[in-house]
What we know:
Membrane topology (chain A): Multi-pass membrane protein
InterPro entries (chain A): OligosaccharylTrfase_OST3/OST6, Thioredoxin-like_sf
GO biological process, one term (chain A): cognition
Family (chain A): Belongs to the OST3/OST6 family.
Oligomer: heterodimer
Transmembrane segments (chain A): 212-231, 243-262, 297-315, 327-347
Amino acid sequence: xxxxxxxxxxxxxxxxxxxxxxxxxxxxxxxxxxxxxxxxxxxxxxxxxxxxxxxxxxxxxxxxxxxxxxxxxxxxxxxxxxxxxxxxxxxxxxxxxxxxxxxxxxxxxxxxxxxxxxxxxxxxxxxxxxxxxxxxxxxxxxxxxxxxxxxxxxxxxxxxxxxxxxxxxxxxxxxxxxxxxxxxxxxxxxxxxxxxxxxxxxxxxxxxxxxxxxxxxxxxxxxxxxxxxxxxxxxxxxxxxxxxxxxxxxxxxxxxxxxxxxxxxxxxxxxxxxxxxxxxxxxxxxxxxxxxxxxxxxxxxxxxxxxxxxxxxxxxxxxxxxxxxxxxxxxxxxxxxxxxxxxxxxxxxxxxxxxxxxxxx
Amino acid sequence: xxxxxxxxxxxxxxxxxxxxxxxxxxxxxxxxxxxxxxxxxxxxxxxxxxxxxxxxxxxxxxxxxxxxxxxxxxxxxxxxxxxxxxxxxxxxxxxxxxxxxxxxxxxxxxxxxxxxxxxxxxxxxxxxxxxxxxxxxxxxxxxxxxxxxxxxxxxxxxxxxxxxxxxxxxxxxxxxxxxxxxxxxxxxxxxxxxxxxxxxxxxxxxxxxxxxxxxxxxxxxxxxxxxxxxxxxxxxxxxxxxxxxxxxxxxxxxxxxxxxxxxxxxxxxxxxxxxxxxxxxxxxxxxxxxxxxxxxxxxxxxxxxxxxxxxxxxxxxxxxxxxxxxxxxxxxxxxxxxxxxxxxxxxxxxxxxxxxxxxxxxxxxxxxxxxxxxxxxxxxxxxxxxxxxxxxxxxxxxxxxxxxxxxxxxxxxxxxxxxxxxxxxxxxxxxxxxxxxxxxxxxxxxxxxxxxxxxxxxxxxxxxxxxxxxxxxxxxxxxxxxxxxxxxxxxxxxxxxxxxxxxxxxxxxxxxxxxxxxxxxxxxxxxxxxxxxxxxxxxxxxxxxxxxxxxxxxxxxxxxxxxxxxxxxxxxxxxxxxxxxxxxxxxxxxxxxxxxxxxxxxxxxxxxxxxxxxxxxxxxxxxxxxxxxxxxxxxxxxxxxxxxxxxxxxxxxxxxxxxxxxxxxxxxxxxxxxxxxxxxxxxxxxxxxxxxxxxxxxxxxxxxxxxxxxxxxxxxxxxxxxxxxxxxxxxxxxxxxxxxxxxxxxxxxxxxxxxxxxxxxxxxxxxxxxxxxxxxxxx
Lengths: 361, 779
């Protein structure tokens, strides 16, 4: 809430002293504008006798002022926050020679709009790509109207969903295609850029700030492991522990064979709850898809069968009490047979028309 | 020698397989004779069991007879595995006929035909002007020639021996024959890794496992059919060379690798896995001269050989996926050099420190390369493809894998192979490091992309065989007849027989599952369709071949046929006509142009078709019989691909209703209802009433009554529609002889003069030019 206020306060012609060079440049430019106004004053007075031309001049002045103002804001911040008044003055009011892309959104935490936040991130990426691109000009501005700051704008435009992206062309009213089709295309910055290129002929190459989080996590992990190794440098036997390595490999194998990669790429729901009777189903009915819960069940079943096989081997090779070994052997066998037939029955319920089953229908 | 001592194992290994073998053969409708043969090994088990029971003091040379029995038994089992694998791949041939399947095999068949009829050098220089009109395609330099050369060579040898076989039959039966070779190389590799019994089990598993059958049924004449053999054989020779450290084994490995490179792009898997193996061996301090000799020889000779394939060329020294091999080569040289120095010098501690530093640095470089290669290209590459190139996303093989696919293709093996992996890691040695790495990398790739299940299948078979063989080794066979009978430790015969029996039942279920899957899912040629009536009788729908043959017989030899790219290879192969785009999707903009023509209205499409010199348009329409793989169902991909290249003209949103649905009925978007694809699919379909319960023009695939029944063409005319309307061919009309004028012709008084003249001349009518001739005729 504080940010737009301070920006509005700073929007006047006397900017606060900043450490960066940007505000200074702004001031200089404003100074120049003031000087040119002063220089232009006598001719203006002279021209008062020619009303249409004066109106033209006035309009041009107004336009130049608006563009200057917008440029100033967007230099400072790539997305301009607007309230109702500013929106009407800069976006709706006629003398314009620039396009404005407006995101109508509800970012306040109490609105609980998670989509808005994601869309906002993409929008910021896009606006920054434009702001720091080599073709940055005063032909296109990005702005945002928050519902809690400009509810009147929402009412005025008859808008009842957020986020919405709209393009306001330099001339005339926005058409149907000037509203971004969020439902169908999604709000990826690339798609937005494509849409803007389509509407305004301004081609923005989306530049995402490289995501270092993965690299940092990897570096942290490596340093952690390295540190651990260094601390335990006197006793490195655990590296040669075959059981640990075998466990790790089996984890990878189980994760893959139970379709965790599919979950990672497709992002299915955890389970499905039937809205009518509130029944929760953990198994997806089709063989083409799966739920997260289902893949976890499969992972456990696979692990149990493998463990059964290992136990069978243990029972036969270990040296120990025969009765105990017999029990291990039977447990192993039970694990293999029971869980395999369970797995087969799940498979059968998903793959319609599969004829075979074992123990469990 | 350690492996040889386990000669009790083949017997248990043989018994589980004898049941599935019989089932396999029975299901493939083989005669009783082969059943009798399948029973033979079971009968031979008894003498072997007795022979094996003889107490043998270790270290003494083994008597000749068990070894003889053993090799005979192994030989028989391998032969039967080959036979079972071959027979279970014949479903399609028995049900339909000896025919090439699907799409890509048609191109391979056409190239092989060219090779067989024009010779090898002509094939390498072949410029195919019938594809990608008007661009053409340099075939010799853009294919992996191994498949064609193999089939061509077999054909040539058979003809040399005066066995006259058509090249098509060689192509159809190549993959089943190679599946036998795959079994044998899997046997050899598993024997090196574990023991002979596990090897035989693995050979039997891979002979019938659906994950491999899916790419190697009779008629599926594709690279993977021979590449899996080459893959397994290369790995066998590699393990052999690491074990022995002999240059001759390594040279054999390189030759096998060369064959693999010539056969399939999946050779990249080998050239990354082998360096990974060496690297891990170095990390585990298992470096030895054997590894050094094997890898140095393999890298250099393999590199030079792989660069001999025109399609591969200089890629092995340029692209990132080959860099890991080069990095490991440098690393192992440095490591060997340091070892050499350490032997010579005395400053021990300094040496170790130095070597540690260097190997760590090199390892970091290697790891980063690996990281970039795999995460950067394989995984991210998929995401990139998903967003940016609709053509890649539109291919259903490039999808991640659900657990159902794993279970469907591998059945019990997918749950038991982790146990085999466990045993391998617990009893680790140089070659088991290799199989563990193989398993983990292959399972990752299979998880990312469903088609890479193919590379996972062999290692799953091997590890599963190890797990089962371990169980049978301990539970099958008599304790009393063992070398030193552990009577007091025994689990007792009852438990043992229960375990054995249940395990055999599981394996039997596996065999039954494999046969069922092969028969139901993987044995459809897809160019001949079959439908079943209620009483079980079968209708063959042979529309594709009917239409292609019509094209071959009734159109000009140089006619250009436009169709969606799926059918390019089939048109070229069966109809022998020029196509614009085909399944080798190398030129996206050309495909987008065809997609644009299909999704524009008739006038705009006619302009595109004129500029591409199109004579005929071929489409697939399934609305009459309810075939879901037709062009209307693929249509959105055409629109998307066209939109990617021509965003100004084609917009995907125009083809949806305002509610965002894709509908072909009256509520559908007008753009869709007037685009060329829609009009061609449903031309005159509105007059057709399929059923008394449905209105005329009812589309059975989409269960909707079509929205535009009054379709008229201006620039096209229907040329051919197959029996079940599955294929429809339209002829593109030439430009009209004379442009019709938009405005009325200016009225002059010439006409009246002519009338006057003609009246004067007589009954010649108003054709002033003919006046002279008329007069002369009269005279």
